[in-house]
Amino acid sequence: MENETKLCPLDENVIEECVDLFIATFSKEPWNDVYESRKQVFTFFENHINNNYFVGYVLKENNTVIALSIGTKKPWIKGMEYYIDQFCVKTNFQGRGVGSEFLFLIETDIKKKGMNAIILNTVKGFPSESFYLKNGFQLLEETVFLAK
């Protein structure tokens, strides 16, 4: 029997699994993120979920979260866009097409919800950059990302 994957909303029902997946993924290479506590990451998820423009997804395989996308519905001149703030796939599922399938399912769902584009930023030279390019994203050369 083949394992069944299903796109589901990221909500309070899956927040614990998502926190664990997030920490497990981003505390490893190439990100090596360090968190003050699990509570810090839990609060990060709560803050997103409580945002009026929040749109989040999980991909489940046999009722277990194997990927997540944290994002927002973003107004733009040409309509609403889906801005992906965080996206990750469980380490042992990476390189097997799961992330590409997840993006395809998200794109299909956001179109049903009236959003017309997916936008995101990632770290130049990281594996995520080639993953997004492979999945049809375009590098916007004229864009500069600034922080203060």
TrEMBL record:
Residues 5-148 form the N-acetyltransferase domain. It holds the Pfam family Acetyltransf_1. PROSITE patterns: GNAT. InterPro entries: Acyl_CoA_acyltransferase (IPR016181), GNAT_dom (IPR000182). It comes from the Bacteria. Gene3D superfamilies: 3.40.630.30. GO terms for molecular function: acyltransferase activity, transferring groups other than amino-acyl groups. This is N-acetyltransferase.
